[in-house]
Design a protein that fits this description.
The chain is α/β, with parallel strands linked by helices. The chain is built from six helices and six strands; from the N terminus they run βαβαβαββααβα. Strands 1, 2, 3, 4, 5 and 6 form a six-stranded mixed sheet that branches. α4 packs across α5.
């Protein structure tokens, strides 16, 4: 009933996720160990939507963390919990030309992928925008901002 994920979410993670949930349909919880991000935003979002639609619980294990795209994955859990000594890390994204997401106007269509994703996993449009633009401004794409307890509460990162 529990699946574990450790490492970067990559394109093949979708195939692995589909295989595991087909073979073990009673999986209802995903324990995240050390998840530094994703290297394929579109695939990460597809997996996140499946996690949400299946009503799965995401949990960060004691001494674990989720950063970057793994935070987006974590947010897909219909229940979201964290063990002791855990972290959530966020930052802006950058395209192949070095343009930072935070440098684009708020109404730029490049933001839609993430704003639409957050809404597809249950966030209101206001909450989605608030959290997304917070992440863009929290740190540049080559850095990381580890969320404070107050920020985790403010953006409703945990959900029982």
């Amino acid at each position: 009933t529990i699946m574990e994920i450790n490492g970067v979410l990559v394109t093949s993670t979708l195939t692995h996720f589909n295989d595991i949930t087909a073979s073990y349909p009673n999986v209802k919880r995903i324990n995240m160990i050390e998840c530094p991000g994703s290297d394929d935003d579109e695939t990460n979002i597809q997996i996140g939507i499946k996690v949400y639609q299946k009503g799965m619980h995401t949990h960060i294990n004691d001494n674990g963390y989720a950063a970057s795209g793994a935070v987006d994955f974590f947010l897909a859990g219909t229940q979201r919990t964290m063990g002791a000594n855990t972290n959530l890390g966020v930052h802006s994204w950058a395209d192949g030309n070095g343009t930072e997401g935070k440098d684009l106007p708020m109404n730029h269509p490049d933001h839609d992928l993430f704003l639409n994703y957050y809404q597809s996993i249950g966030m209101s449009s206001t909450t989605a925008a608030d959290f997304y633009f917070f992440t863009l401004n929290a740190a540049s794409s080559n850095s990381i901002h580890w969320m404070t307890a107050a920020e985790i509460t403010q953006y409703n990162m945990l959900k029982n």
